[in-house]
């Protein structure tokens, strides 16, 4: 981040009227200013500034979790920004609302299977959030975990570890994993992550739903869905969940 200097607009002082401060003091003062500016750059915040990106994601996650849609059997959807509705004017209209049943949502933007998928820390991974999201729900509530796009640069070992941690948090709740869609911004990485998740599901007897074949409508960032994209994605997942073995 560049910082522009401000020109001193004071009138020039009369010659010899005031002595200039020693050069060493001027250097020290400049160093202090640079240190203060570096703190702002590194932390992304200054006193009195707005919330950080992670704080915004956290607030959005809490707000989205407060909106339960549908009626019938309870189902929990754990996911990333697609589940949280990032980029939508009304995030409560994100794709899980298209699923049948009484749908509860635990979405956190930027999160994934692996602990390092999010810059907000390992505490927002799918596994780390699962137990708290399930706590108020009846025993045996089905869980749908959807994601993988944020694991694009994570190693297979990291994704496997996160997947297995997730299984350990479910306490007998049946799990279905919905893999990553073919978002244009990360299209090159989808086959690797999708293939790994499908193999992990097969190893552990978990239902896997592939969605990389879907043609969806994306926002200009080519990563997040438009309202129409959410509707199509949700309807497709609902249909495939009903037929998945």
UniProtKB/TrEMBL annotation:
<feature type="compositionally biased region" description="Basic and acidic residues">
    <location>
        <begin position="1"/>
        <end position="16"/>
    </location>
</feature>
<dbReference type="InterPro" id="IPR036514">
    <property type="entry name" value="SGNH_hydro_sf"/>
</dbReference>
<keyword id="KW-0472">Membrane</keyword>
<feature type="domain" description="SGNH hydrolase-type esterase">
    <location>
        <begin position="77"/>
        <end position="232"/>
    </location>
</feature>
<feature type="region of interest" description="Disordered">
    <location>
        <begin position="1"/>
        <end position="20"/>
    </location>
</feature>
<protein>
    <submittedName>
        <fullName>Acyl-CoA thioesterase-1</fullName>
        <ecNumber>3.1.1.5</ecNumber>
        <ecNumber>3.1.2.-</ecNumber>
    </submittedName>
</protein>
<dbReference type="GO" id="GO:0004622">
    <property type="term" value="F:phosphatidylcholine lysophospholipase activity"/>
</dbReference>
<keyword id="KW-1133">Transmembrane helix</keyword>
<keyword id="KW-0378">Hydrolase</keyword>
<dbReference type="InterPro" id="IPR013830">
    <property type="entry name" value="SGNH_hydro"/>
</dbReference>
<feature type="transmembrane region" description="Helical">
    <location>
        <begin position="25"/>
        <end position="44"/>
    </location>
</feature>
<dbReference type="Pfam" id="PF13472">
    <property type="entry name" value="Lipase_GDSL_2"/>
</dbReference>
<keyword id="KW-0812">Transmembrane</keyword>
């Amino acid at each position: 981040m560049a910082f522009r200097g401000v020109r001193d607009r004071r009138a020039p002082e009369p010659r010899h009227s005031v002595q200039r401060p020693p050069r060493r003091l001027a250097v020290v003062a400049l160093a202090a200013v640079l240190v203060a500016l570096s703190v702002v750059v590194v932390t992304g915040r200054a006193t009195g500034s707005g919330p950080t990106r992670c704080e915004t994601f956290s607030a959005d996650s809490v707000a989205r979790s407060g909106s339960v849609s549908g009626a019938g059997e309870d189902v929990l959807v754990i996911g990333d920004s697609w589940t949280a509705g990032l980029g939508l004017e009304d995030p409560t209209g994100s794709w899980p609302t298209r699923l049948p049943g009484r749908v509860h949502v635990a979405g956190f933007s930027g999160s994934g299977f692996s602990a390092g998928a999010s810059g907000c820390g390992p505490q927002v991974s799918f596994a780390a959030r699962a137990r708290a999201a399930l706590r108020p729900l009846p025993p045996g509530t089905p869980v749908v975990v959807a994601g993988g796009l944020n694991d694009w640069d994570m190693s297979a070992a990291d994704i496997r570890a996160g997947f297995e941690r997730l299984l350990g948090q479910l306490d007998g709740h049946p799990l279905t994993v919905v893999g990553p869609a073919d978002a244009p911004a990360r299209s090159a990485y989808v086959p690797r992550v999708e293939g790994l998740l499908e193999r992990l599901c097969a190893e552990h007897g978990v239902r896997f739903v592939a969605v990389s074949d879907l043609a969806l409508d994306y926002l200009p960032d080519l990563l997040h869905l438009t309202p129409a994209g959410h509707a199509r994605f949700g309807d497709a997942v609902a249909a495939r969940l009903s037929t998945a073995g």
